[in-house]
Write a structure and sequence with these properties.
The chain has one helix at 82-87; strands spanning 11-16, 23-24, 28-41, 53-67, 100-106, 114-128, 136-143, 148-151. It contains one helix and eight strands; from the N terminus they run E-E-E-E-H-E-E-E-E. It has a single domain (8-43, 50-151), classed as Pnp Oxidase, Chain A, CATH 2.30.110. Strands 1, 2, 3, 4, 5, 6, 7 and 8 form an eight-stranded antiparallel sheet that branches. A hairpin with a 6-residue loop joins strand 1 and strand 2 (23-24). The termini are close together. The protein is globular. With 152 residues, the protein is mainly β.
């Protein structure tokens, strides 16, 4: 395991259709991974007025915000027009109800780090443009099934 604190700039999200062709969310300014668990209420008259719970279903999601660019850089392998990439990542586009493969990882995959991966649905995709401001977009993906944790 890596020691020390990590620079948030080193964390990225990659999206693709399988565990071999992921593309990074290019020009990302933020990314996040959220794990959550439903709670099943177990409160009863013997819990002394305190809420008692047990663990229920677990879920996960990832999201990112990035600068919007409406063209691919031909000299780069990274698909910089991520908006179009994710819209075409499945046969009929992001809203085709087809899961995509997602990795939340250290940018250079260095030894001693972990990465998280699994299949997720694109649940939100939006472009934002303010007056005299850099255009940006936001993407949210909700996991379906297990979120794998892999040591690099």
């Amino acid at each position: 395991m890596a020691t020390g604190l990590m620079n948030g700039t080193d964390l990225i999200i990659r999206v693709g259709t399988a565990d071999t062709n992921e593309e990074p969310v290019a020009s990302a300014t933020t990314c996040s991974l959220e794990l959550s668990m439903d709670e099943i209420d177990q409160s009863n008259k013997d819990s002394g007025g305190w809420k008692a719970i047990m663990g229920g279903q677990r879920s996960w999601s990832v999201s990112a915000e990035a600068l919007y660019q409406n063209e691919a850089v031909a000299a780069s392998k990274d698909y910089t027009d991520f908006w179009n990439h994710i819209a075409q990542a499945t046969t009929d586009g992001a809203l085709a109800r087809t899961p995509v493969y997602v990795e939340f990882a250290h940018a250079n995959g260095s030894t001693g780090n972990v990465y998280y991966s699994g299949y997720a649905y694109v649940t939100s995709l939006s472009v934002n443009g303010g007056t005299e401001d850099q255009a940006s977009y936001s993407i949210s993906l909700t996991g379906t099934g297990v979120l794998a944790v892999t040591d690099v």
